[in-house]
Amino acid sequence: MTNSTNMSYPSDILSAPLTVDGTIGRGNFLQRVTLQVDAGETVLVRGRNGTGKTTLLRTIAGLEQLHEGELHIGTRLIDDATPTAFVAPHLRPTAMAFQEPRLFSHMSVANNVAFGMPDTSSHSPEFWLKLVGLNDFADAAPDDLSGGQAQRVGLARALATEPAILLVDEPLSAVDDSIRNDLRELIALQPATTIWVSHGSPDALPTVSQTLTLHG
After folding, report:
1. Which of 7, 70, 113, 200 has the most other CB atoms within 10 Å of its CB?
2. Entry pTM
3. Which residues of 132-159 are buried (b: 16+ CB within 10 A; e: fewer)?
4. pLDDT greater at residue 7 or residue 197
């Protein structure tokens, strides 16, 4: 997960559109992407395996760099495929909720959620844990969680950073069916711009503003 590391972002970047116009890639794979997303919209990214869906999220988060082109949040240039313009992941107002939550094993569940929470946050880690149905697990160790519970903690940790852009890639694959739809609704109701990758059958998202299909 990419987090704010207790940083506060100016309002012009927290309520700004996301624009990607360039080439993404890893290794020998390259994919041209053009994406314009208004603040608060939800985009569903679809495509066959190997077409760059996850790479797109990693590029927006700063874990990969553009091969060419530009990436903007509002009027701010975040990446133009040069070291000079590249903004490091921890300086971007993004959070990632992925299939592997990668919790810190030496921290309690509550401290995992607290990691990266902005100093200006009016909520406690327990608030976010309650939203994902884990309010009784604040003092638990990550190693004691099931796969689905760990994913829910990872989602709570991403939401707790109060990001401008939430990057979602199968974060609920191990979650019980009984709560999965509620968590999808939770993601849909948060105010961030959301880029949601679908692998295989589309996720039943409550609200989608646009769909981006990557071809390979």
Report:
1. 113
2. 0.88
3. bbbeebbebebeebeeebbbbbbbbbbb
4. 197
Cα 213 to Cα 216: distance, rounded to the nearest angstrom: 10
Q: How many CB atoms lie within 10 A of CB 200?
A: 9
Strands 29-37 and 42-47: unpaired
* H-type alpha helices, the chain: 11-14, 53-61, 109-114, 125-131, 147-160, 177-189
- Report the distance separating Cα 192 and Cα 165, nearest Å: 5
The whole-angstrom separation of Cα 5 and Cα 116 is: 4
Do 166 and 194 form a contact (C-beta atoms < 8 A)?
yes
The encoded tokens of residue 144 equal: 């004691």
What strand order describes the sheet that includes 210-214? 94-98, 165-169, 193-197, 42-47, 210-214
SS3 at position 194 = strand
Q: Which of 61, 165, 160 is nearest to 118 (CA)?
A: 160
How far is the C-alpha of 102 from the C-alpha of 205, rounded, in Å?
A: 24
Cα–Cα distance measured from residue 80 to residue 67, given in angstroms and rounded to the nearest whole number: 8
Q: How many CB atoms lie within 10 A of CB 110?
A: 20
> pLDDT tens-digit profile of 106-159?
999 999 999 989 888 899 999 999 999 999 999 999 999 999 999 999 999 999
The token pair at 79 is 């990446």
